[in-house]
Each structure stands twice: as C-alpha cells, then as structure tokens.
Amino acid sequence: MRPPDHPIRPAKAEPGTAAKTSPAAAFALALGAAALVSVLTVLFSPVGLVLAIIGLILGIVAMKMTKRPGLTGKGVAIAGLVLNGLALLIALALAAGISTFLNNEDAVNRLERQVEDLRDNLPE
User: Which ranges carry the DUF4190 domain (predicted)?
Assistant: First the structure.
C-alpha cells in the first residue's frame, strides 16, 4: 500500500527523491524583486526595465519546466511573473510620462525657470 502524498512533495515526483525547485523560477522571482526595486527608485528604471524583460522570459521558461517530473516551483514562477510584469508596467508608464513631459514645451520652460530661480537663490 502506498502512503498518502505529502502536501509539500508533489505527486509527480519520483518515489524516494525529493522534488527540486526550478532554478529558472527562483531566478525569475529574484529578478522580479530587483526589477521592481530598480523601477521604483526611478533613477534605475532603465535597468529595472531590462531586468523585468529578462525575468519575464525566465518566468515563462520556468512555467514550462515545472511540468517536468521532479521539478516544482510553479508558485515561485507565477510570483516572478507577477513581479516582473508589474515592474515592466511601471517602467513603461514612467517612460511614457517622462517622454510626454519632455515633449510639452510649456512644462519644460517652467522647469527651466524653476531651475534658474533656484540657481539665483543659492548662497555665494
């Protein structure tokens, strides 16, 4: 008689061997966290954009890898996909906002005036 499946170990793992988490899923999650932090710091948003794209690709690869026997990490891959997708959306929205602002001549002129006013008010 076969013992019941343990809730942590998937049923598709071979008996006697522990299931391994997909390395691609772990990297997708790590890149997702790094991309989100990079995008939210605004200064590093281009780096975050690149990390998010790489993380999305790794997340998709990880989802396919978790279908293999002995590999787990579907939840980790999904979390990586969510974080990378969120970072990608924020980076694209930020890029669109900056390009819209820079293409608005009145906004650029206001910014230049404010910079000149601040420069004039600096102590000597």
Answer: 32-92
